[in-house]
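Late entry, evening session. Most of the bench is empty. Finally got around to the prediction I had been postponing all week. Sequence below, unchanged from the version circulated by S.P.
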Amino acid sequence: MAEDKVQEIAEIRARIDDIDCQIVKLLNERATMALEIRKLKPQVHWGLYDPKREEEIFTHLASCNDGPLFADNLREIYSTILHVMKEMRG
C-alpha cells in the first residue's frame, strides 16, 4: 500500500517536472515577445513601462483563471514575471 503511494508521488512529480519545463519554455517565448515589443515602442513614441497594460494583463489572467489558484495568487506570480521582463536586457 505505501509503495503504491510512493509510486504515485513519483509519477506526479515527473508530471510536475514536465509542466515546469513547459512553463520555462512559455516564459522564454513570452520574454522573446516582450523584447520585440520593447524594440517597437520607441518607434511609436511609447514609454517602456505601461501601468495600464499591466492592469489589462491582471484582468485578463483573472478572466481565464479556472483555479485552484486565486486571482491574487496569479497577480503575485505575474507581478514577479513582469518585473523580471522589465529588467531583461535585450
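Two things to note before I forget:
The two ends are 53 Å apart (CA to CA).
The chain has a mean pLDDT of 95.
Will write this up properly tomorrow.
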